[in-house]
Amino acid sequence: MRLHLLLLLALCGAGPTAAALSFSLRGTWSVRNGNGSLQLPGAVPGCVHSALFQRGLIQDSYYRFNDLNYRWVSLDNWTYSKEFKIPFEISKWQKVNLVLEGVDTVSKVLFNKVTIGETDNMFNRYSFDITNVVRDVNSIELRFRSAVLYAAQQSRAHTRYRVPPDCPPLVQKGECHVNFVRKVMVSQTVGLGPSFPTQGIWKDVRIEAYKYLSPELLHIFPIYSAREWNLEIESTFDVVSSKPVAGQVIIAIPKLQTQQTYNIELQPGKRIVELFLNVSKNITVETWWPHGHGNQTGYNMTVLFELDGGLNIEKSAKVSNFTISKVRGPLKGSKGPQATFKEPLTVLDVGTHHHGILEVTSEDHCLLLQSVVDANMNTLRVWGGGVYEQDEFYELCDELGIMVWQDFMFACALYPTDQGFLDSVRAEVAYQIKRLKSHPSIIIWSGNNENEAALMMNWYHINFTDRPAYIKDYVTLYVKNIRELVLAGDKSRPFITSSPTNGAETVAEGWVSQNPNSNYFGDVHFYDYISDCWNWKVFPKARFASEYGYQSWPSFSTLEKVSSTEDWSFNSKFSLHRQHHADGNKQMLHQAGLHFKLPQSTDPLRTFKDTIYLTQVMQAQCVKTETEFYLRSRSEIVDQQGHTMGALYWQLNDIWQAPSWASLEYGGKWKMLHYFAQNFFAPLLPVGFENENIFYIYGVSDLHSDYTMTLTVRVHTWSSLEPVCSRVTEHFVMKAGEAVCLYEEPVSELLRRCGNCTRESCVVSFYLSADHELLSPTNYHFLSSLKEAMGLCKAQITVSTGHGGGQGAVTSAVAPFVWLERFSDNGFLMTEKTRHHILLPLEPTTQE
Ligand SMILES: *[C@@H]1O[C@H](CO)[C@@H](O)[C@H](O)[C@H]1NC(C)=O
Ligand SMILES: *[C@@H]1O[C@H](CO)[C@@H](O)[C@H](O)[C@H]1NC(C)=O
Ligand SMILES: *[C@@H]1O[C@H](CO)[C@@H](O)[C@H](O)[C@H]1NC(C)=O
Ligand SMILES: *[C@@H]1O[C@H](CO)[C@@H](O)[C@H](O)[C@H]1NC(C)=O
Ligand SMILES: *[C@@H]1O[C@H](CO)[C@@H](O)[C@H](O)[C@H]1NC(C)=O
Ligand SMILES: *[C@@H]1O[C@H](CO)[C@@H](O)[C@H](O)[C@H]1NC(C)=O
Ligand SMILES: *[C@@H]1O[C@H](CO)[C@@H](O)[C@H](O)[C@H]1NC(C)=O
Ligand SMILES: *[C@@H]1O[C@H](CO)[C@@H](O)[C@H](O)[C@H]1NC(C)=O
Ligand SMILES: *[C@@H]1O[C@H](CO)[C@@H](O)[C@H](O)[C@H]1NC(C)=O
C-alpha cells in the first residue's frame, strides 16, 4: 500500500481548525568543526562532506585517493546550527515537537541553548517535545561527535568481552568497531565502497505544532478470510487535549463502491485506533502482481476523521490485494522442506541486491528501479549493510512490482547487547516496521546478513568455550528483540533471523544451525572465484540462492571521471587502491584467463580498456552460467537437493567508481552483466549445458500458462555466418512454472552430424519459438574455451538505424560478446549477419 500523508497542511491553507501545523527547517544551516577553524553553510538534508565540497574546501571525494585524504573530516566533531523565526503564533498551540526524520548519527540536540535530547542511531526517527522552550525566534544546534571516535569509545567501554570484528581487513580501508554504532556500514566500510563515515542531518527536520491531537501514522493491512477482502486500518494519535476528542471516521474506496462510517472517542494520551473495513463479497478485487506476472493494481482509499471542534483530518492511501507467505511443506525426495514464497501464484524470485546511498534524488531511484524491471527482475534485497531506503523507493517498488526482501541493518559482524544498544535498536526496528509495513512490495523481513554463518562458521576465531555467550547475544538481539517486534508489529509477512539460514531447521537447532548455508534448507550464499565458473558442478543445488556473484571493473568512461592518465593500467596504484576485496583484481584475471586470451596490446591504454571489457565479459558469463544452473534446478531433486526457487545475484548498484560485483555502474550505466540478466531472467528461457559429454537443453518457464512451441538448435562454425546445421524439435507443451529437459544429444554425435565441427570450431545456439515467432532469447553454448576457438576472426560490425527508428547491427563474421554503446541489447553472440531481436507476445495454449 502506498501512503500519502495529506494532513500536514501547508501554512497558507491552514484555517482555524487545522489539527496540526508543520514548519520545515530544510535549507541552509551553518556548519562548523570542533575547534571552529572552519565555518561554512551546509544544506539540510545533507552531510559535512557535501557541504565542504560545495564550498570548494574539498574536491570530489571519489576522485583518485581522496577517500584516504579526507579521513580527517570524519574524525572531527561538527556542529550544525540555525536560527529561525516560526511564521505562526506558536504560543497558541498546545504541543510543539521537533521532529528529526534522520540524523547521522551521534549528536546532542540543543534548542534555544537547552539540551532537549541526544541521538545515536541514524535509522531512527526522533521527536523531542519543545513546547516549553520554543519561542517565536529560535536557535537550534546539533553537536555531532565523530562516529568513528564514538564507536571506538563504545567498544573500549565494553570491557567484559570483545565483540568482533574489531577492524575490517586492511584492503577494505575502513574504520574499526562499526558494530558499535547504528550507522550505515557500507560507508565505513564493508569492502563495497569508500569509507566516508560522515556527519549531518540526512532527512527532513521540522517543527510540528498541534492542538487537541497529533495524527501520527496510518497503516492499512489487508486481512484475508475465506472469500472476503477485509482491511484493518490502524491510526496513531497523540491526544493532547485534557478532555476526550470524539467524532466520526468515514472510510471509502470509491472504485470498490465501499464506504463505512465509524464513531470514535479518543482519550488523552497516545492512542491507536483500529478499524475494520469489509469489502462486499460480490466485488472483485484485482490482485497486485510482481513485475512480469500481471498488473500492480492499487485502489485509492480515503480516511476522513471529522472530530469535535470542527477538526477535519483526511488521509489517503493506496491499498492492494496481495498476500505472501513462506511455503513450508515437505518436498518429495528431500530431507529439507521447500523454500518458496507463496503468493497467489508461486513465481521464481529473480533479481539482485541493493544497498542504499544517502544523497539520492528521485531521478536516481527511478533510473535504478527502472533498470531492475527492464532486466526482467522481480525481486530486490535491501541489504543489511546499507540503509532502510526512503519512502519513495518503496513506493516505486509498489508501482513497478518489485518484491523487496528487507533486511534489518545488521551485517557481517557480531553486535553488543547491552541495554543502551538494545533500546536504540528496539526504537529503530519498531519505527521502521511502522514506516514500511504498508508497502505490498515488501515480502519478507530478515534479521541480519550472514551473522548466523559468521557465528557458526567462526569467522572471528572465537574460542570454543566462549561461543555460548555469543550465541546468547545473538538470540537476544535477533530473536528476543527484533523478531518479537516484527511479530507484534506486522503479522502480514514472514520473518527470518538471518541470511543464509535454514528456516525451521535453524529454529529447531536453537536459532543457530551448525551449517546455516546448507543446500537442504532455507537459502544459500555462494562465492568461489577460483574454480572454473563455466563448470556448473561447482555451484550448490540450493533451495534458494540468495547471494552469489563475480566482480568486474566499471567501464573506462566511468573511471575516467575520477582518475588521471597515470592510473590507467590494471596494475596501477589506483587500480589496486579501488579494489576493496582481497586479491580481487588477480581473481578476475585468473577467471578470465581460464577461457579467454588476456589483452596484450602494445598500447597500454588499449590493454587497460580491453582488460576492463574482458572482466565484464567474464562476470557476465560466470553469473549467467550460475544463474542458469539455479533456474533449471527449479523442478528437480537430485541427491535430495534442488527445487531452487530463487536466484538473487550480488549486487545491483555501485556506490562509487570501482571494481565490484555490481551490474550497474556508479551513475547507472549498464555493465554487460545487466544486459545478460535481461536475457537470463526472461520469463521463458532455454538453458544449455553438458554433463558427461552429453549436451542438454532445459526449458525454464516462469509463465502462468502452458504454451505449445518448438526448440531450434543450430550449430555455427566460428568462421562462417551460415549455420552448418539446424534441427527443430516436434511441437511440445512447455508447462507453466516448470523447468524440464527438452533436448539431449551426445556432443560427439552433434559434432559428427554438423559437418566437420570440432569443439573448437563450432558453437551451438538455440531458441524457443512458435509459428516462426521467437518466444525466448536466443541462448548459446560454447563447446570449448574461446581462447581455444578456431576460425574466430576479427569481425567488422556496423550499426545502422532501420525503418521505424529501430537499430540493427551488421557483422562480417560470427562474433561473441558484441558490445555497442547505446544499443538496446549488448554482449550478445552474433551468429547472423544482421541482428534483430524481437520478442512477441505469447498466446496461451488452448486446453482440449
Ligand atoms: C571530538 O569529541 C571527542 C569527544 O567529545 C573528543 O575526545 C575529541 O577530542 C574531539 N575532537 C575534535 C577534533 O574536536
Ligand atoms: C582545527 O581543526 C582542524 C581540522 O581538524 C585542524 O586542521 C587544525 O589544525 C585545528 N586548529 C587548531 C588551532 O587546533
Ligand atoms: C468484518 O470483518 C472482520 C474480520 O474478518 C469480522 O470480524 C467482522 O465481523 C466483519 N464485520 C462485518 C460488519 O461484517
Ligand atoms: C452485493 O450483494 C449484496 C447482497 O449480498 C447487495 O445488497 C449489494 O447491492 C451487492 N452489491 C453490489 C455492488 O452488487
Ligand atoms: C485477491 O487476490 C487473490 C489472488 O489472486 C484472489 O484469489 C482473491 O479472490 C482476490 N480477492 C478478492 C476479494 O477479489
Ligand atoms: C491489467 O490491466 C489492464 C488494463 O486495466 C487490463 O486490461 C488487463 O486485463 C489487466 N491484466 C490482468 C492480468 O489483470
Ligand atoms: C488516486 O489518488 C491519486 C493521488 O491522490 C490520484 O493522483 C489518482 O488519480 C487516483 N487514482 C484513481 C484511480 O482515482
Ligand atoms: C581466546 O583465548 C585466548 C587465550 O585465553 C585469548 O588470548 C584470546 O583473546 C581469545 N580470543 C577471543 C576471540 O576471545
Ligand atoms: C568437410 O571438410 C572437407 C575438407 O575440408 C570438405 O571437403 C567438406 O565439404 C566438409 N564437409 C562439410 C559437411 O562441411
Fold and architecture overview:
The model is unreliable at 1-16 and 837-848 (pLDDT under 50). The strands form 13 sheets. This protein has a six-stranded antiparallel β-sheet with strand order 4-3-6-12-9-10. Among the domains are: 2-18 and 211-323, Immunoglobulin-like (Sandwich); 20-207, Jelly Rolls (Sandwich); 408-493 and 509-518, no CATH class; 682-792, Immunoglobulins (Immunoglobulin-like, Sandwich), CATH 2.60.40; 793-848, no CATH class. The chain is globular and about 90 Å long. Strand 20 (299-307) and strand 21 (311-319) form a beta hairpin. It has 16 helices and 47 strands. It starts with a strand and ends in a 13-residue tail after the last strand. Helices cover 20% and strands 31% of the residues. The chain has 848 residues and is α+β, with helices and mostly antiparallel strands. The structure holds 2-acetamido-2-deoxy-beta-D-glucopyranose (9 copies). One 2-acetamido-2-deoxy-beta-D-glucopyranose (NAG) binds next to strand 19.
Can you describe this structure in just a few lines?
By secondary structure, the protein is an alpha+beta fold. It has 16 helices and 47 strands.
List keywords for this structure.
Immunoglobulin-like, disordered N terminus, 31% strand, 6-stranded antiparallel β-sheet, 848 residues, 47 strands, 20% helix, 6-stranded parallel β-sheet, binds 2-acetamido-2-deoxy-beta-D-glucopyranose, alpha+beta, Jelly Rolls, 16 helices, disordered C terminus
